Amino acid sequence: MKKLLPIVLAASLMAACNTPEKISYFQNVPLNTYETIGADNNIRLRPQDQISIIVTTKDAEITSIFNLSRSQYRAGYTELRPDYQGEVSGYTLDSKGEIDFPIIGRIKIGGLTRSEVAQKIKNKIIEAKMVKDLVVTVEFLNLYFSAVGEVKKPGKYAITRDRISLLEGLAMAGDLNIMGRRDAIYVIREENGQRVSHEVDIRKKELFESPVYYLKQNDVIYVVPNEVRAGQSTLNDNTLLSTSFFLRSGSFLTSLGYLLFK
User: Fold this and answer.
1) How far apart are CA 45 and CA 238, in angstroms?
2) Alpha-carbon gap, residue 75 to 85, rounded angstroms
3) Helix H or strand E encompassing 51
4) What is the pTM of this model?
5) What topology is assigned to 50-140 in CATH?
6) What are the residues facing 158 on neighbouring strands?
């Protein structure tokens, strides 16, 4: 029994750092209760965003007019990645949120969702009396968000759907590791020439009411480290709470506990 005391003491010290109240998600979320989800949470295009636009009709000749080949590169268009095997180039929104579309000319699509862009271009083509039966497909090309800090897989992640939640973004980054604070997650957003940082607590239901619950392009998620991780910092030789300090402290407490209970 005495031999087990050091192990029990060390385990107790580790457990004290991560109680369920600190690490469990959605602690005050009501169960079996329906809540209305806001409809206007879809990604809206901004200047410098890149999208692909594919027009499909029964007439192959008309279709080829609107779907530019990669060789037809000019101002207003951005080629897809070099290994792309298709024939369609991407469009980059200029500073006014406009693109230069074949035959139709300049179209303002900044501030629109993917479906709104598709409908607008479809209407313009029909108005030009070129074809009535067509399908317009719009896809994101360079939209992404970043996840850094105490997540398992920090990095940059593509946005391919019309909307993506903060929880989905964290899941894509492998979720928080055990050293990440659930009550201190920052989402840094740049929009309309301004930068704003929001703090969210994923342990509480108020998360769903946050303006950053649904991510936007270029958002940065930062998960703050807890006290244990912060104490392990070795940024410089003068750091008091270094890894070696904690190792020495843990060894001392283990020895002390052994002597006390011997």
Assistant:
1) 47
2) 22
3) strand 50-57
4) 0.74
5) wza like fold (3.30.1950)
6) 144
